[in-house]
Automatic annotation (TrEMBL):
Superkingdom of this protein's organism: Bacteria
EC number(s) on file: 1.3.1.76
Keyword Repeat set for record: no
Full protein name: precorrin-2 dehydrogenase
Biological process, per Gene Ontology: siroheme biosynthetic process
Origin organism lineage: Bacteria, Bacillati, Bacillota, Bacilli, Bacillales
Keyword set, alphabetical order: NAD, Oxidoreductase, Porphyrin biosynthesis
Chain ranges of the Siroheme synthase central domain: 116-140
Pathway terms, separated by semicolons: Porphyrin-containing compound metabolism; siroheme biosynthesis; sirohydrochlorin from precorrin-2: step 1/1
């Protein structure tokens, strides 16, 4: 499997089924501002709230093959294997599909993700053990604490300024490596000082 980051903002995502698993996937899609549409005769209370708040669209009935038309990405998340298979069959070659109970027929898997601002660490076991992926995520949450969010903002600023102001290649590389020291991650005052002294 080929790992990438996918821009999903405003893209049409169809979720078939409105249960526990659908809700878990939709939460993550909404965080990335996807345009989510759910087809299902029943939905969870959480999804109901999203409908009331205008955050998702809900088609209140069972799946029809034409529902997949116009979707960029599709998740078949019903508790009925043959319905999920039909959803997969209804997709065209170019559509990305995830079937929650049939990894072998999916184009992509969802990953366990640790987010610290711009830093995203995604874990996959390629379907072998989603629970291990979740466990590793919990371990990484401890290692990569909240501080990484500010640190990464600093790295972005510093990198930009170094590229704009330092033209000597050797010094540029020196400075880009210098900011990797934990010292800067842990100390805001040192970060400010570093930014002021770039020349
Ligand atoms: C292939 C994949 C396809 C996909 O869903 O994309 C898939 C498939 C299946 N999951 C199943 C079960 C569970 N999945 C979880 C949890 C997560 N599952 C996720 C991803 C993936 N799950 C993809 C591979 C990821 C990888 O391997 O790295 C995570 C990481 C991300 C996410 O869902 O967003 C998220 C944790 C996120 C977090 O904590 O951050 C739990 C635990 C829990 O819910 O607490 C259980 C119950 C325990 C168990 O069964 O192990 C079953 C059996 C269903 C059944 O028996 O009926 C199948 C189907 C099969 O294996 O055939
Ligand atoms: N990939 C993953 O991460 C995981 C996958 N699973 C699998 O996910 C599946 C769904 O699990 P849950 O969400 O817990 O089930 P659930 O019972 O909570 O929800 C099923 C949903 O599918 C809807 N549905 C049923 N027939 C439909 C149809 N013809 N058209 C549209 N919607 C329909 C139901 O109305 C309900 O909203 C299970 O088969 C399970 O094996 C379970 C755990 C994790």
């Amino acid at each position: 499997m080929y790992p990438i980051m996918l821009k999903i903002e405003q893209k049409r995502v169809l979720i078939v089924g409105g249960g526990k698993v659908a809700t878990q996937k939709i939460d993550k899609l909404l965080e990335q501002n996807a345009n989510v549409c759910v087809v299902s005769p029943t939905i969870t209370d959480t999804l109901h709230n999203y409908v009331l708040n205008g955050q998702i669209q809900w088609i209140n009935r069972t799946f029809k093959q034409e529902d997949t038309k116009d979707a960029f990405l599709v998740i078949a998340a019903t508790n009925n294997r043959s319905v999920n298979e039909l959803v997969k069959k209804s997709c065209s070659e170019g559509q990305l599909i995830n079937v929650v109970d049939a990894p072998e027929t999916s184009d992509f898997y969802n990953m366990a993700v640790v987010e610290r601002g711009e830093l995203k660490i995604a874990i996959s076991t390629e379907g072998a053990s989603p629970t291990l992926a979740r466990k590793i995520k919990r371990d990484l949450i401890e290692v990569f604490d909240d501080g990484y969010e500010d640190y990464l903002r600093f790295l972005l600023k510093a990198r930009k300024k170094i590229k704009e102001t330092v033209h000597d290649e050797e010094r540029k590389n020196y400075l880009l490596n210098e900011i990797m020291y934990d010292f800067y991650r842990k100390n805001e005052v040192e970060r400010e000082r570093f930014l002021e002294n770039i020349n």
